[in-house]
Specification:
The chain is α/β, with parallel strands linked by helices. It contains 8 helices and 6 strands; from the N terminus they run αααααβαββαββαβ. Helix 4 packs across helix 6.
Length: about 240
């Protein structure tokens, strides 16, 4: 979404070089001292020093804020896919209802960060009196896969062991995310909560993130796609819907 794409698809390319840290993204050193102290209440030093070149590594508290910066910085770039998307969106809402569907996990990094952030970003667009023509749907994916634990040193990537992806923490992360949404409802009209009774191992080896973290397809992804079809095809909705 931050690069020109002649094929017309939306694909986000991670803009972070290996030496860019989270504190660079939020411009921590440029903030006044009292605001820096407040930020330190929310983020530890390991958070501020975290590099995001391989993704958010299961840390949606960093990813949601970083993603908000990425979207805001990209949306005004002429020729970017996100700019083209929002331009078409502003045109479409003038002609009636427009539906937007988001799918993401509630236990990982990028997916868990995207679920609340993308809808909030789109709701913040200046659509004038047509803002009410947007209807949002979401497939929230609970844990459905696992991967091996690391059995070697990460090598060139110096990552805090406590901040590495770990499937054993997915259930705890899911409980925390759903508890948060129970107190602070996500900005969606309709939510499909999808999960699997058994966690299948979808990768033969462990990888901290980036392109090396490749997982095999899983049927839950098809279920999320069916949820999207249901959302786009349904003619009449109640005000809110929660499906399992």
């Amino acid at each position: 979404i931050n690069q020109p794409d002649p094929a017309g698809t939306l694909f986000w390319q991670n803009p972070n070089p290996a030496d860019r840290q989270f504190h660079h993204i939020i411009e921590f050193t440029e903030q006044r001292p009292e605001l820096q102290q407040f930020i330190r209440l929310l983020f530890g030093q390991e958070d501020l020093d975290a590099t995001l070149d391989m993704g958010f590594l299961g840390r949606p508290h960093l990813g949601s804020l970083a993603l908000q910066f990425y979207l805001s910085d990209t949306v005004e770039i002429e020729g970017s896919a996100l700019h083209s998307f929002t331009t078409r969106l502003r045109e479409d809402v003038r002609n009636g209802e427009v539906r937007i569907f988001v799918a993401g996990s509630v236990f990982g990094g990028a997916g868990a960060a995207s679920v609340p952030t993308i809808a909030a970003f789109l709701r913040g667009l200046d659509l004038g009196r047509y803002a009410g023509n947007l209807r949002y749907g979401c497939a929230m994916l609970t844990p459905y896969f696992g991967f091996p634990q690391p059995d070697h040193q990460v090598g060139e990537h110096d990552i805090d062991q406590s901040m590495m992806p770990d499937t054993e923490r997915h259930m705890v992360a899911t409980q925390g995310a759903l508890l948060h949404y129970a107190k602070v409802p996500p900005p969606y009209n309709h939510v499909w909560l999808c999960g699997a009774p058994t966690l299948f191992q979808t990768a033969a080896r462990w990888a901290p993130g980036g392109e090396n973290q490749a997982n095999e397809p899983h049927y839950i992804e098809l279920i999320a796609a069916i949820a999207a079809i249901d959302f786009f095809r349904c003619r009449i909705f109640s005000r809110t819907t929660l499906c399992f």
